[in-house]
C-alpha cells in the first residue's frame, strides 16, 4: 500500500473528526441552546477546558493539514535523491502525528473526567449551584432516577453525558489514527516507498 496515500486518507478523516470535536465542545457551552448559563458562569469546570476546541480540534488540525499536504512535500530531497526527500517528509510527519496524539489525549482525559465528575447544576435539595454527582465517581451515569436532581439547566445531565461521550469517542478515534500514522510514517520514511509514478 502507498504510505503517502494512507497518510492523506488519515488526514481527511482527522480533519472531519477535528471539526466535529470543535462543534461538540461549542455545544457544551450552550445547554439546550441557551447562552445565559455561559454568561452567568454556570458551566462545569471541565466544560471550560477547551478540550474539544483546542485538544481534539486545533491540535488535531495540524497533523491533518500536514498529512493531506504530504504529496506536495519533497523535503528538498536528500543529496539529490528525490525518493529520499519523500521519505524525509514522511518521517517529519511523525512529529505532526505526535502533536495530534497530545491533543486527542487531552480531549480523552478531560472528557472522561467530565463524565465521571458530572454536571454543574442547580439542585432542588441544596437550592444552590453544585456538582451533585462528584461522590458517585461516574456511578450516576447508570442511576437515571437521580438525574432529576438537576433542575437547571433543564436536561443538563443528558446534555453533558451525550456531548462528553461524543468527545471521548472522537478523541479516541483521533488518537488511534495518529498512532497508526506514526507507524505508517516510520515505515514510509525508512522504506522510502511512496507509491508508484501515479502519485508524483
TrEMBL record:
Q: Name one Pfam family in it.
A: L6_membrane
What keyword terms does UniProt attach to this protein? Membrane, Transmembrane, Transmembrane helix
Q: Where are the transmembrane segments?
A: 12-30, 50-70, 91-115, 161-183
Query: Where does this polypeptide localize?
Result: Membrane
GO cellular component, alphabetical, reads: membrane
Q: How does it sit in the membrane?
A: Multi-pass membrane protein
Membership in a protein family: Belongs to the L6 tetraspanin family.
**Name by which UniProt lists this protein:** Transmembrane 4 L6 family member 1
